[in-house]
Write a structure and sequence with these properties.
The complex is a heterodimer of chains A (112) and B (112). Helices cover 0% and strands 57% of the residues of chain A. Chain A has no helices and eleven strands. The radius of gyration of chain A is 13 Å and the shape is globular. Helix content of chain B is 0%, strand content 54%. In chain B, the strands form two sheets. In chain B, strands 2, 4, 5, 6, 9, 10 and 11 form a seven-stranded mixed sheet that branches. Chain B has a four-stranded antiparallel sheet with strand order 1-3-8-7, with no helix packed on it. The chains are: A mainly beta (112), B mainly beta (112). At the A-B interface, strand 4, strand 5, strand 9 and strand 10 of A face strand 4, strand 5, strand 9 and strand 10 of B.
Chain lengths: 112, 112
Amino acid sequence: SQQGEEDPQALSIQEGENATMNCSYKTSINNLQWYRQNSGRGLVHLILIRSNEREKHSGRLRVTLDTSKKSSSLLITASRAADTASYFCATVLIASYGKLTFGQGTILTVHP
Amino acid sequence: KAGVTQTPRYLIKTRGQQVTLSCSPISGHRSVSWYQQTPGQGLQFLFEYFSETQRNKGNFPGRFSGRQFSNSRSEMNVSTLELGDSALYLCASSPDRPYEQYFGPGTRLTVT
């Protein structure tokens, strides 16, 4: 079963706009990660945020984590057409080895 | 470093047959995880191996099995294939828990 729920399921924006995706999960976690997948290919790791962190940045990416609400958000600033992909949040539970539990993903389309 | 490689990339099998998929992790990574991705169920964890030992297992029937060799390469086997086993099978490697995972391009299995 899926640990996380992502919102929205699909997002369509213009180049230059910001894109925000949200993820909620059900149980206590060790960390939460975001991945990108292009057209059914392998996943690419974007960012990892630990349970004791509240915000993290990487380039145009900003991730927040609210453990009290069991939710996270991924913000992509100044989106580009190349950002078009599916984005997944994945949680790692405490004392869970090598297991990512994925949400259903958000399909992001950035129009040139 | 070379990325995670998976062979074969595409496979067509008949119901009732068995299949073996192979994964070579990034050099130095001792953890290998396997995932199944389908449109209906999304990304689901199959199992994880670390130093030739299975540390974690998902909720899949016993027809799905795996192993890891001393060089960290891993194989997964699916016996008595069913139509519902058609999926993208992804392998990921990691230095260890609870780090980010690096995914291969996947093996697209079609069962007819």
